[in-house]
Amino acid sequence: MAPKGVQGVWADEPFQLVETPGNTQPLSDPVVYVASHMALVHNTFIRGLNTIYLQADYIDKSNKKLVKEFFQYCQCWSSLVAVHHEAEEAHLFHTLEDRIPEANGIFKVNVDQHKAFHDGLHEFEEHSQAGMDGKIEYSASKIKAMIDSFIEPLMKHLNQEIPTLMALQKSEQGQKQIMHIHEEYEVMVQKDIDKFKIAPYTLVNTDKTFEKGEHPFPVMSPVIPYLVKYIMARKYSGAWKFGCTDYFGKPTTLWMNGREKAPPS
Q1: Closest to 205 measured CA to CA, from 236, 157, 239, 234
Q2: Nearest to 3 by CA among 225, 177, 244, 238
Q3: Which of 43, 128, 200, 230 is the most exposed place for a label (fewest CB within 10 A)?
Q4: pLDDT tens across 26-40, in order?
Q5: Is the whole model's pTM more than 0.85, yes or no?
Q6: What would you measure as the largest C-alpha separation in the chain, in angstroms?
Q7: How far apart, in whole angstroms, are the C-alpha atoms of residue 250 and residue 4?
């Protein structure tokens, strides 16, 4: 169901958002907090993917500027998801298993899930980059078919990683270590990403009203959304209209609503 005040279909479909553990358990528990934070990150990916899938049919391939902007948005999404999962394997899972005895081996299933959607995601990222560079013609059916090729393993992973983290709730070392490891992971991810992509993308796909607005996500100074909106968003300024919220986390009507579908492509 679309949030209050939003017209038409919204970014909570067709792919369903992930419920956070913090929706039913206290966020004062470090494991609940970290698992909930991960679910919220995953939901920014799912909302973004929904906005791509829903709006692809509304991009007129004769409008070269619009096509490039939409490909930019797709490329931002795919590169961010790729970096997120690469950092999980390079640091998060490895460090959790090193410092928390009960974590040993439990993330293997999640790493295997990464492998299941890796090739499809990589192909989508390359396709988006080629579109940005004007090397291919826009095709909505191609974009949606590519998403269909990896959506099942991707959604399985985005959902199942949360209970894997929650399995550490009964671990004494899990309770002591997980917040520190999570903070280290966040710092590492920030080093590997293009902030002119991740900052605007994250903000225009974060619903501050989700689960009654009880989550402190993303954690940042109140000044940051203004900095992102008026400075950092400029580099790929045409891309962010395809998001589903404003820079302050308020759900907005999707760009597609009120427009006619483009001729089939």
Answers
A1: 239
A2: 244
A3: 230
A4: 999 999 999 999 999
A5: yes
A6: 59
A7: 10
